[in-house]
Specification:
single chain; 159 residues; alpha+beta; Thiol Ester Dehydrase, Chain A; 6-stranded antiparallel sheet; globular
């Protein structure tokens, strides 16, 4: 099976925010088949996509020296899952950062098959509340991945 978390970073501002897009793979759509929910990417994989987006934000912002591990996920609003043709957008914005932790808020949206990508500025400025938050601890990237490999992948994923 091939797990694709964010497929593309649509916007990236170092140490500030990242907007990513995820489409489901055929393997992901068939995960819940045995439990009667065929054709849906599970919500937990969408949360993992948000965590991976946070990692990309930290890794690219730190010139591939640091990564991060989640230590707290607060008030996450689980979307219903992803159906074929739909895409998942996640906007993560940094609200605080110190030497050990980074705190981010999340805005997420499932896009219908023909729905255009959200305009970043309009999406950031809406009155709608955030869909949760995540606190991550910094870890050296070298302990998780080879920095050169991650930098190469970022060139494919990045905006």
């Amino acid at each position: 099976m091939r797990w694709r978390f964010p497929d593309k970073a649509l916007f990236f501002s170092p140490w500030e925010s990242i907007l990513t897009l995820k489409a489901g793979s055929l393997e992901e759509y068939s995960l819940l088949d045995r439990w009667g929910e065929q054709g849906c990417v599970p919500s937990a994989l969408l949360l993992e996509s948000c965590i991976q987006s946070a990692r990309w934000l930290v890794e690219a912002s730190s010139s591939f020296v640091l990564s991060c591990e989640p230590v707290d996920i607060a008030h996450w609003q689980a979307p219903p899952g992803l159906r074929p043709g739909e895409r998942f957008c996640a906007l993560l914005r940094v609200t605080a950062r110190d030497a050990e932790y980074i705190h981010l808020v999340l805005r997420q949206k499932i896009l219908a098959p023909n729905e255009p990508l959200p305009a970043l500025q309009a999406w950031q400025d809406t009155d709608k509340g955030d869909d949760g938050g995540v606190t991550c601890a910094f870890v050296p990237l070298q302990t998780r991945h080879l920095p050169a490999d991650r930098a190469c992948l970022w060139r494919e994923l990045g905006p």
